[in-house]
Structure formats: C-alpha cells, structure tokens
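Below is a filled-in request sheet from our internal design queue. Each sheet records the structural input a requester submitted and the sequence that came back. We keep these sheets so that new team members can see what a complete request looks like end to end.

REQUESTER: design group, bay 2
PRIORITY: normal
MODE: inverse folding
CHAIN LENGTH: 121
BACKBONE (tokenized):
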C-alpha cells in the first residue's frame, strides 16, 4: 500500500470550537495486522470500505486511515482513527450495519486487531 495517510474530514462542528467549549470527544483507534496470504489488492479494498464509512455512518466527525511507517506497531500495518462526539455516538457506530460488515471482513483478513478508545476535551 505505501500511501500516505488518507484523511477524510466531515466538519459537523469545527474541532477548535469543540475544544474551546470543553465538549468531550471520543477517539476510536484501531490497528490491523493482515494475514500473510492476504493480497495487497484485497487490503486496498478493505481500506476503501473503511473510508466509505464516513459517508455511511452519521456519527463520524472525522476519519483517517493510514499505513504504519515507523515499524513500532508490533507488526500492525494499517491504522484507523475515528472521531465521534460521545460514547453514545461510539456505541451507535459500533452496531451500524456498514461498520459491522467491514469489521467482519477485517477479522477474516487479519491475525491481529487492536483497538483503543479514549475521551478528551
């Protein structure tokens, strides 16, 4: 893949206003390590499916997908960062049918997936 991170931004409320008003945000981070037999073309299809979530899931404020370049990710090759407004929005994202479908495909293609969610103002 070797491409720079692709950033998809949906400005439902500008980030600087959210921080200035003290509104909490949720960052949902996921790391993917693909099975050795998964071809690059399939990986790219999965990246496109992840990027498509920003148009399909209404709670997403911002979404980034990118390849690891540092080698510090314990073998995980791809990262996803999704910003949502609050825990309710994260919960809705997790069960959205489009997210469920792409998550299933990723579980079938990866031997490791790690996720971390945190809140901040």
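RETURNED SEQUENCE:
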């Amino acid at each position: 893949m070797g491409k720079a991170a692709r950033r998809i931004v949906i400005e439902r409320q500008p980030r600087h206003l959210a921080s200035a008003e003290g509104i909490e945000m949720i960052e949902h981070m996921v790391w993917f390590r693909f099975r050795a037999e998964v071809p690059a073309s399939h990986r790219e299809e999965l990246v496109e499916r992840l990027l498509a979530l920003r148009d399909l899931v209404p709670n997403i404020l911002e979404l980034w997908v990118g390849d690891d370049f540092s080698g510090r990710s314990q073998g995980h090759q791809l990262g996803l960062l999704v910003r949502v407004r609050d825990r309710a929005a994260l919960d809705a994202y997790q069960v959205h049918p489009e997210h469920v479908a792409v998550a299933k495909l990723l579980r079938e293609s990866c031997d490791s997936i790690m996720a971390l969610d945190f809140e901040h103002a």
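SHEET NOTES:
- Strands lie at 6-9, 25-34, 60-67, 78-84, 110-120.
- The domain at 6-120 is CATH 3.30.70.100 (Alpha-Beta Plaits).
FILED BY: M.R.
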